[in-house]
Amino acid sequence: MQSLAGESVVVIGGGIGGLSTACYLADAGADVTVVEKNEQLGGRASRLARDGFRFDMGPSWYLMPDVFERFFGHFDRTPSDYYELTHLDPHYRIFFKDDDRVDVTPDLERTKEIFEEYEAGAGETLERYLEKSRENYEVGMEHFVYEDRSRLRDYMTLDVARQARGLSLLGSMQGHVEDYFEHPKLQQIMQYTLVFLGGSPKNTPALYNLMSHVDFNLGVWYPEGGIGSVVDGIVDLGSELGVEYETDRPVTAIKGREGAFLLETPEGSMRPDLVVSNTDYAHTEQELLAPERRGYDADYWEKRTYAPSAFLLYLGVEGDVPELAHHTLVLPTDWDDHFEQIFDDPQWPDDPAYYVCVSSETDDDVAPEGHSALFVLVPIAPGLEDTPERREEYRDLVLEDLADHTGEDLRERIVLEERFCVEDFASRYNSYQGTALGLAHTLRQTALFRPPHRSKEVDGLYFVGGDTTPGIGMPMCLISGQLTAEKLVEDHG
């Protein structure tokens, strides 16, 4: 990158995108400070520690290891300089609610055999599907993710036409998967990763079949110490590059423009030359900027499609939980109703699909001896009424469902319990309607249809994170940090 020497930059928000941007900007010579409203860095990748138990509060899947290698490689480091990885086996376990159970392992030949048990010819079909997924991933990442095509004219080139030839660009994931597999359970296995993108099979573009390459070919990993260790690694890298960090310091207003910003905080004002916001895009525009300085009005945000919120139970339990794998999914045989109760008719799902993370299955250090640490995550619609009474009622429903369909009854073994839901996402992360992830990846909210990295109204103000390109998830936010930094260097280097 060109030099940003002499430029002072404040990054508002210490999530993955903000931490990534800070590293790139410091490497380019800028004087960078990250200010975070909460008591710890990481944003949604925060940690919860209580009574000897330790939980990743948000992201818990380490996917797309190539993205992390590329990020650290930019600074002549490797992920192993900061944390160690374990390849999970099984990658994950699925309990269907008709007493069926599937383990997806790193052994692709075994997975093909499992697919064949459900549908004749599905094993070879899986191989063809994954080859298409690999092609979409390699072309898509290199030419449409790491290259930020934020304007329509960026797509009107021969190079784009050549690279896009053959990509699965149109249609929904539901239609795309149905072209390969008839059995509904196989369709669910190929689509569950859409939860990481905050969408449903019917509203997520077919291009995201590339996630199956991530799942089956690149594998599912666990960083020793959890995702929090990845956050620590990025923070340590930033410190080595000269980044300074301040926690417990919320920004309450953004005033001024390039070279003369004034950021108001309870601890006093800050006066950087440039500003990068890693808080939720809507919060920055609607709460931190004056009306005449906003790129989008309230109506714009009201009409967006948001990724789900979540009902979360963080549980410390006595004994082992042998029926559960490190990553476990519990799915109704027909999950359409659950997605409809998130996107079409918002309400608390009455037959939920949910995820259980048992990090103590792999890591002995996250729970006291003789205990297990796990959390249960149920995707729910953002903006739902979230009361203590509703949480208590839903907690009982979920734990009963877990016992009925996995054989692990935790109810009499819980020694630690914490809950997190819509109101907590809104208050802790300033997320719009309490969404857990941000803007969903619908066709109208992908690529150039997501809000831009440059502010539309304020010179010198930039945005990073899941609401911008390339989108939701830790790897995408790492890349978002690179793209945002490139904009600053282009404008000021």
UniProtKB/TrEMBL annotation:
Pathway: Carotenoid biosynthesis. SUPFAM superfamilies: FAD/NAD(P)-binding domain (SSF51905). The keyword Oxidoreductase applies. PANTHER family: PHYTOENE DESATURASE (PTHR43734:SF1). The keyword Oxidoreductase applies. This is Phytoene dehydrogenase. NCBIfam families: crtI_fam. One of its GO terms (biological process) is carotenoid biosynthetic process. It comes from the Archaea. Coiled coil: none annotated. GO terms for molecular function: oxidoreductase activity. Keywords: Carotenoid biosynthesis, Oxidoreductase. Residues 16-488 form the Amine oxidase domain.
